[in-house]
Amino acid sequence: MEPRPAAPGPCPGDSRGAEEAAAASSLHPAEAQPRRRAPAVAAVLPAGGSGERMGVPTPKQFCPILERPLISYTLQALERVCWIKDIVVAVTGENMKAMKCIIQKYQHQRISLVEAGVTRHRSIFNGLKALAEDQPDSKLSKPEVVIIHDAVRPFVEEDVLLKVVTAAKEHGAAGAIRPLVSTVISPSADGCLDHSLERARHRASEMPQAFLFDVIYEAYQQCSDYDLEFGTECLQLALKYGHINAKLVEGSPDLWKVTYKRDLYAAESIIKERISQHICIVMDTKEDENHVGHHLEEILKNELNHVKVTSGALCPTSRDLEQIILEQCYNYVCVNVMSSDFEETRKLLNMLEESNLSILYPIVVISVYFLDYKSVPFDEKMESLIQIREYAKEVKKRNILLSGLLIYFPQDEQKLQASLRQGVTIIATLIKERNSGLVGQLLVA
Amino acid sequence: MEPRPAAPGPCPGDSRGAEEAAAASSLHPAEAQPRRRAPAVAAVLPAGGSGERMGVPTPKQFCPILERPLISYTLQALERVCWIKDIVVAVTGENMKAMKCIIQKYQHQRISLVEAGVTRHRSIFNGLKALAEDQPDSKLSKPEVVIIHDAVRPFVEEDVLLKVVTAAKEHGAAGAIRPLVSTVISPSADGCLDHSLERARHRASEMPQAFLFDVIYEAYQQCSDYDLEFGTECLQLALKYGHINAKLVEGSPDLWKVTYKRDLYAAESIIKERISQHICIVMDTKEDENHVGHHLEEILKNELNHVKVTSGALCPTSRDLEQIILEQCYNYVCVNVMSSDFEETRKLLNMLEESNLSILYPIVVISVYFLDYKSVPFDEKMESLIQIREYAKEVKKRNILLSGLLIYFPQDEQKLQASLRQGVTIIATLIKERNSGLVGQLLVA
After folding, report:
1. pLDDT tens-place string over residues B101-110
2. Which residues of chain B does A269 touch, with a Cβ-Cβ cutoff of 8 Å?
3. Stated pTM of the model
4. How many CA atoms lie less than 13 Å away from A393 in the CB half-sphere?
5. At what angle do helices B70-79 and B93-105 cross, to 10 degrees?
6. What's the complex ipTM?
7. Domains within chain A, CATH numbers bracketed
8. pLDDT(B51) > 90
9. B370 burial class (0-12, 13-18, 19+ CB within 10 angstroms)?
10. CB-CB neighbors (< 8 A) of B268 in chain A
């Protein structure tokens, strides 16, 4: 899976999304213009749920994954789509303060908060009202198309958002669907099977959904209290009050909704996997080509062949390391020259701290030493160990997970290969687990 | 969550299950007997699926979790229910050999293998035929009630199995259900919303299901080819051919089906969590009460208050450690007296190897040393390090994950508390992650 760009706000170079949405907007000849125009799109995110199904006190949209609340990942997924102009989040009064902290801490952009209602529909309605009202002091303006998504579906991709928006432009309403995993049955009053539905003829209605703003807003204005209390399905409102048969769009498995505790486990594993796909080996350019660090790089590439391994130099003239940081690489293996000195690692840590990259995900840094501990007095190594523990404590506050790796460096070529492979196993483990419990350790290969 | 008993075959002391099932069997006055009789129950497990939804080449029931195939966990869950007499698994010819290896390696009991059909229904039918036939050479006999379960639902608990069996005895058929997570909709021919179903009036049909054997077997014998090719729902067959409205039993979230890759992640996390709920501190009984090892135990109890922490002594006269191993504790913290000698750890490792406990789950063993590395020449510690790496390599072959933990032992009471807490953090991490990549390491607190 591709790691999604982490930096909120500014958009990825290619504005494919915007263009295709523009193309979509010109599907209606009446609207065709010499200069294509992307539809004004906003998103509404109901986040007032209590998450009773999760079996945990915290509402699930606020449950932490790698110490960051789930909803922040969902906001990040919407923010990186530059043609979504505004994102309106409906949260309960008691969570309003927490939500503001989240927006500030993770530097979320284009977010407006509204008070959630007592039900999902009422929360969505409040979000729509905020977009409809043209108050002078409001920075929100009425969009042409509105996306409705769940705060607990963090893995939504731009392509499905684009598909539902494009379909909503044409049909008035659109929603993502998935095949049913289980057969759906209808119970009788006495708790027995009345009949089972044919799986092939039914689908699960998922999120995101998109609507022409006027269609869904008018539908909500006509809603009965019963709808607002007991309904959940926006497509149904568009059908009932707007007489619009929503276009159904096949979604990917990524759209799944974090519902149970097990889903939090799954989400954490998926996120860890996504940010572990790129490892950067940082080496002093003064090193000669035959330096063992290059052997390590080779073995990393061979053993972790599903992972992208690049190398970056620390010398100020070369810009490649800065580029790699900009590309949001969250894993660094820093090869130190033979000494207990931390010069290279310190330089790297400074660059990472300045980049603010670790705001969204923990960065793993592994500081590697090659030496023959039989020949070197061990006190030195204990010095290194004590040093690295201090550094680790320090940078952990900035969400950087630093550990040391001592690679035994025998003259025997075969033994060297063995300890290099062992080193790669340790590196892979530290990156995969991304667990702060082992920071500051000096591991030995 | 309670860790489920791991040892297959022999039953847990309380045969609650059998008794309640017996009670159930006497629900029909006609069958009431002076001596209550449990119904003869067998289980059929269709495991012929290809797992295309998983997006991985291996069929999902054979995907490894902690290096053990998923289906082995499901068999374990059924085996520990002693009133299930036979478990018939339907696997494709190409997987027959692999399945036999799994049964042997993990010492599964009461399993019979039959050839899977090309569809789920045909596989189940083959399983039922094997139970129906009374061949002299067959060790299978026709059960009164048959459970049908999925190979990819490893977390099924005894209580729900008992509920469906009891209900099947009374109604002829029964199945577990769950609330719908998403709204179910019906698409029109042109891929638009035709109508959406009222969530409250529908349920997801899950597994396990149970049937009076004759009811489901006769239903399968009457099945059309269309049923066998395109049907999936056994309850529907009982209704269509047996005119039996199955009793619906509310199931727990545990019943979920491993369908996508993310479900494998979730399953692994759940299993890791379950086997991390009990930690045993092993200490030499010769230690006095004030030994720092007891402080460590105290802090473990305080910091990991959701975990059961017990202590076991190695002296041959005391049986408590053997008892703890019998209770299937998968986590051991072995406190060594001040030396680089491995005596205690070696004793523990021998006991664990003899117990065969690690057949089903990897055991974590953390060998703890207390010492002031400022006062002791470091070579000794390197000796320990090299020793522990050798032991670790050795016992890893037996699925035991051994690491060392050096706890800095300053005179200053406050500093000591700090390093003990740090030690507990490392212990918790090693137990939680249960990753073989760090075995043989000597970590420092």
Report:
1. 999 999 999 9
2. 262, 265-266, 268-269
3. 0.90
4. 7
5. 60
6. 0.88
7. 41-182+197-270 (3.90.550.10), 276-444 (3.40.50.360)
8. no
9. buried
10. 269
